[in-house]
Q: What sequence folds into this?
């Protein structure tokens, strides 16, 4: 029973009807904004390849976090950009490290803001690698000790959720155990469970955290981007080990992975719309080739449609502003003259 009985265009004839039957909605309450903390005071440096995103010292960062919370964005993902690095990544787990100090302040100063922390060594090692390198290879089990130390230091500082980023084997089990042993059995783990070795992270390293690799690559721990069954195995393992939320990264290049992950595991899924994805849209918009706001909303909606519950994105604030403006435009209008006329006709 096709045409002319079925006319799909009936439900697309105006925005009100399209809205009524819309299947997926972007909502501010599902966005997570990455923030970059640097030591010192009075620092607010824009990251050139991520316009609109700043490295900030805690005085500026706390103001930004409060402004972010006011837009309705519920959570931030915190990264530290330390002044000094070393072989052991000791700055990553120091009680007074940049991230630990920032967590403490945010939890005291900004009400109801969820502070998620990226748990990884790569911003803190001289090599730029995520953990400890032995004979040119990322030493899995030695690096688990580092990850456990970072995790506990974030938990003790008051982090609401920890997000392990380096795809070590057994990482979630080790973290869960460490947290439970220290009384943090209620602290959720948001695992970068399916994270692909992607050049889309380059802007993040080069200018976001200054942690470009001194040698080698991350292909022995991050996934080969040709694989998707393997992504399902990785996600399955992390869930068995105790992960509460699954991250798929990158997002736009992995919509198939997001979709499979959601339908196979029925767990909360977050997609990370990474620095290179931001740079692609922002760059094309600066060349006048694409409309930044429209493409941004289309991209973020596509991530939702694929099945992501949460979206980590450098666009979060901009998207929140646009969505709020849209809500305001929809607020009710009443045609007084029409009412008068109708009431007149009744009398
Ligand atoms: C690990 C981490 C990275 C990103 C977020 N957390 C780098 C990596 O995993 O190799 C990349 C994020 C982005 O490109 O926006 N600390
Ligand atoms: Zn790392």
A:
């Amino acid at each position: 029973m096709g045409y002319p009985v079925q006319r799909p265009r009936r439900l697309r004839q105006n925005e009100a009807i399209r809205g009524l039957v819309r299947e997926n909605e972007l909502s501010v309450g599902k966005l997570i904004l990455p923030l970059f903390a640097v030591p010192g005071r009075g620092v607010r440096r824009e990251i050139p390849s991520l316009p609109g995103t700043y490295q900030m010292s805690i005085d500026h960062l706390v103001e930004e976090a409060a402004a972010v919370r006011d837009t309705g964005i519920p959570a931030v993902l915190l990264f530290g950009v330390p002044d000094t690095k070393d072989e052991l990544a000791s700055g990553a787990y120091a009680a007074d490290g940049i991230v630990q100090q920032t967590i403490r302040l945010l939890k005291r100063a900004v009400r109801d803001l969820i502070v998620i922390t990226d748990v990884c060594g790569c911003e803190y090692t001289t090599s730029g690698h995520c953990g400890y390198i032995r004979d040119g290879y990322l030493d899995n089990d030695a690096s688990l000790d580092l990850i456990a130390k970072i995790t506990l230091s974030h938990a003790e500082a008051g982090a609401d959720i920890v997000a392990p980023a380096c795809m070590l084997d057994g990482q979630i089990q080790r973290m869960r155990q460490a947290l439970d042993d220290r009384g943090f059995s209620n602290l959720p783990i948001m695992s970068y469970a399916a994270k692909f070795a992607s050049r889309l992270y380059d802007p993040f390293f080069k200018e976001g955290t200054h942690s470009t690799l001194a040698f080698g690559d991350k292909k022995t721990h991050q996934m080969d981007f040709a694989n998707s069954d393997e992504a399902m195995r990785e996600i399955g393992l992390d869930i068995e080990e105790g992960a509460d939320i699954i991250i798929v990264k990158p997002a736009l290049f992995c919509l198939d992975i997001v979709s499979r992950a959601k339908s196979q595991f029925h767990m909360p899924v977050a997609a990370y719309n990474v620095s290179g994805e931001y740079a692609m849209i922002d760059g094309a918009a600066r060349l006048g080739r694409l409309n930044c706001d429209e493409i941004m909303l289309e991209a973020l909606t596509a991530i939702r449609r694929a099945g992501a519950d949460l979206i980590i994105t450098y666009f979060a604030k901009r998207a929140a502003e646009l969505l709020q403006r849209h809500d305001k435009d929809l607020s009710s209008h009443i045609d007084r003259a029409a009412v008068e006329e109708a009431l007149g006709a009744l009398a």
Q: What stands out?
A: The pocket of PBG (ligand 1) is lined by residues 118, 120, 122, 165, 201, 204, 218, 274-275 (CB under 6 Å).
